[in-house]
Every structure is written in structure tokens, then in C-alpha cells.
Amino acid sequence: MLRALQIMPVPGLPEIRPGDDLAGSIIEACSDSTGLADGDVLVVSQKVVSKAEGRLVEIDPEDPQAHKPLVVSESVRILRRRGDLIISETRHGFVCASAGVDRSNVEPNIAALLPEDADRSARRLRDAIRGRLGVDVAVIVADTFGRPWRRGLTDVAIGCAGIKPILDLRGTDDAIGRELQVTEVCIVDELAGAAELVRGKSTGIAVAMIRGVDPAWLGEGSVAEAIVRDPSEDLFR
Amino acid sequence: MLRALQIMPVPGLPEIRPGDDLAGSIIEACSDSTGLADGDVLVVSQKVVSKAEGRLVEIDPEDPQAHKPLVVSESVRILRRRGDLIISETRHGFVCASAGVDRSNVEPNIAALLPEDADRSARRLRDAIRGRLGVDVAVIVADTFGRPWRRGLTDVAIGCAGIKPILDLRGTDDAIGRELQVTEVCIVDELAGAAELVRGKSTGIAVAMIRGVDPAWLGEGSVAEAIVRDPSEDLFR
Fold first, then answer.
1. Nearest to A190 among B148, B194, B213 (CB)
2. Which of B147, B169, B201 sits opposite A202 (nearest CB)?
3. How far apart, in whole angstroms, are the C-alpha atoms of residue A87 and residue B204?
4. Cα(A112)–Cα(A118) distance, integer angstroms
5. According to CATH, what is the number of the domain A56-114?
6. Going by C-beta distance under 8 Å and a sequence separation of 6 or more, which residues neighbour residue B35?
7. Most buried among A37, A155, A211, B94, using CB within 10 Å?
8. A with B: how many residue pairs have Cβ under 8 Å apart?
């Protein structure tokens, strides 16, 4: 079955502060723009989730290195250093720069940490939206990570709810009837990247909505369980 | 400016054989479905480009290892091996499994190699479409690669034309006026991944069309020059 996807920015989210009702703000912003329907996928930036969950630490705004101790404490293992760049494995198992600690789109005296459990964050948003609107959406929490062999960064999923992170095609045939070699497609990372294209970095648009995904993709799943690769099966750590 | 993106599958491409007029087939398939307009982005699978360019090698269909010598000859450096898995750096500088040599969606006695220069492949398709239709589209040639720290595969750009591979936001402020920390977004990889979501692996749909991209993204650019990271600046090779 052929499906087109629509990727829509959701503007109008207010500045989010610790303890704010993020689900309520997202519902309101969506009702002003795209609306929400069963099967829609909401992609929410890590930054607003971290803000709502109070994952903020006060730092010296004058010191460009002030967030570095947080990078170390958020890491279980430093993998590489070059100049100011630290690539580490976070407590969640993500491999990224600065352990996801970020000073952009927050006040100068604040550093934002990654959510403690972004799958749980996604689940809570999904449950709150279902509870209040009776609408069954999938939620992806996205952050921007680098890649070792390729320049530039892309958005990937750090948490999800209501969608299978990986489409498992093992046992499926290709178009000419041979068994597929590429079998596990990380659809939540592709959806997170697609959402970034309409959110942008400098616009402050923290949410995008994707309409038209294959209903077969919806279901239970966790980024931590499905995507995070155990160091023991990793060839490059 | 807020933009929504539409990601549309382009069905109807015939089986492509060496020497076939791929641009003509794409034009025909698009005219039957989405049409083509200035600023559209066509994402074309590596497989049909390799077929049209005759990047096919005959192998013993009975031997599951028959493509292995090709993996070695397409590589400049083997980075890791585990069991049947070979991760290497290709002649193009891509780091991927099996040097991009692939036996799915080709006849059992055939292995497909990556295009010699996928930026050139993209440029030729773009030029042919402009020449015949007078329409200015961007073209991305996409393939499916794994990632070291994350399970599952995603589509990335191995060649492009008419679009800047990386959106360089250096010097741009975030939504609250601080300089952005994430500055280089690899939009062609995000577009390639978005296109994969509507193409799928088992449907044989080799082309997707993306409508609505920011005109500021259009322009000259090459994956080889902008994205392929030189081993000397790579921390994990």
C-alpha cells in the first residue's frame, strides 16, 4: 500500500518551564494548527522535554567550560576527546557529544541535561494526550547527534511511545522474491530526522507532526531496548 | 517561515537495466503520479542508479559468499570483521557494511556495486530532467547504511545535486538569541531517511519525491565534498 507522509511544524508552543504541563501546551498548539488524529506521530525536541521535567542545572554564564563537569557526571565512559569535544557514552547508553548537555535555547546561566528516561517521557506525553483528547498518537523525543564517519548532524530518537522503533523485515522478500539483506530499518530515527527538517534550529519550533505513517508501525516499543546498542555488540567503542 | 513537507512515493518505475534511460523512466513515473515542479527533491535508490549505470557483476548464485571478493576490491580499508560482517571504507570514503555491495533486488547471479560517483549520477539525472522538462529539481541518491552505536539502519545520501548537503548555521542565533551550538545539519541525510519511509524495502519503489523544502537549501553541493569525513578528522576509524 502506498502512503504519502506529511511533515508539519507545530508552532505556538510557549516557553516551557520546569513543572509546566507540556502535554497541555502541545495539545493547544496542535489544535491551533494541524489538529491531532489517531495514528499521527508527534516529534518533540529533547530540549522542551528536559525543561518541563526540570532537567536544568545552574551554571556560571561567563564560563564557556562551565557545563563540562556535567558532561562528565552524565557519562559512564568517555570515548574520545579532541580539543573541547568530548564524545562519551551517557548513562542511557547514547554515544554523543557532551553527553547531550546543551546550552542553546536555554538561559545563559542554565545547562539542559537529557531526560532521565526519554521513553518514559514519550509515554507520559502519549498517555496524557490519549487521556485528554481520546486520540491515539505516537510520540518521539528527538535530539541532534553527530555520526563518526559523516559530517553534519541529524536528529535521532532518544525516546518513543506508541511506535515500533525498528521495522523488522527479516523473512520478507524483496521486490523480485529474494530474501532481503537489509532487514532492520530504524524508522523512529528516520521520522525524527524528517521532523527536524520542518522544525529547524533557530526558529524555536519544538514540535512537528507527521501524518500518514503505516498503521503497522504503531505499537509498543522503546528506544532504550530496541536501538541502544550494547557495548558488547558494538565494533567501534 | 513555516513549511510543511510532503513525502510521496513514486511508483511505476519499470525494471531498470544497464544503459536504460533512468531519467526518462523517472519523468514518466512522476508524470503518472506526483508530477514534478521547481524545487522538488527526488530521492532515488542507489540500486536503480547502479543498475542503469551497469555497476553489476555476475557471481555464482549458489555461493552465499560469492560477493565477498567484490567487497574487498571495493574497499580501500577493512575496518572491522565479525563473522560474515565486514565494515570497510569504500573507494568513495563511505564507511558501511560490505562496501555497499548488495544482492537484494537484483537477479540471483548478480551483485550490485555502488555507483562510481553518486554525486555525478545525481547531477546527470538533475540535468536530464531540466533539459527535457525545463524543471529544476534536486536529486539525492540514497543507500541504506548502519551506524556504530545504534541498532537498525537508515537511508543516507551517497550523492546529491541541486541541494546543499549541509545546512550551515554557524553564526545563527537560537530562538532566545544565543549562538547555536548545533550548527551543521545534514539535511540530505534527513531527506534520504524521510524518503525511505515511503519507499520501503520490499515494495520495489525506488523513487520518492519531497515537496516543500526551503528554497534556501537549494544550490550546489556534493556529498563527497561536504559529508564524507576524512579519516584524519575521524575519531573512530
1. B194
2. B169
3. 38
4. 14
5. 3.90.1660.10
6. none
7. A155
8. 238
Contact B144 A182 (CB under 8 A): yes
Q: In Å, what is the CA distance from B214 to each residue of B2, B41, B64?
A: 9, 11, 45
| pLDDT tens, chain A, 237 aa long | 578 999 999 999 999 999 999 999 999 999 988 899 999 999 999 999 999 999 999 999 999 999 999 999 999 999 999 998 999 999 999 999 999 999 988 999 999 999 999 999 999 999 999 999 999 999 999 999 999 999 999 999 999 999 999 998 777 777 766 666 668 999 999 999 999 999 976 677 999 999 999 999 999 999 999 999 999 888 888
**Inter-chain touch A6–B5, beta carbons under 8 Å:** yes
Q: Is the ipTM of this complex over 0.90?
A: yes
CA dihedral for B22, B25, B30, B33, sign (positive or negative): negative
Q: Specify the CATH number of the domain A6-54+115-228.
A: 3.30.1330.100
- How would you classify residue A221: left for phi > 0, otherwise alpha for psi between -120 and 50, otherwise beta? left
What are the grid coordinates assigned to B67, written together? 560477493
Where are chain B's structural domains?
6-54+115-228, 56-114
Mutate which of B16, B151, B169 to disrupt the A interface (most A C-beta within 10 Å)?
B151
Strand partners, A88: A78, A96
- Smallest Cβ distance to A108: which of B148, B178, B205? B178
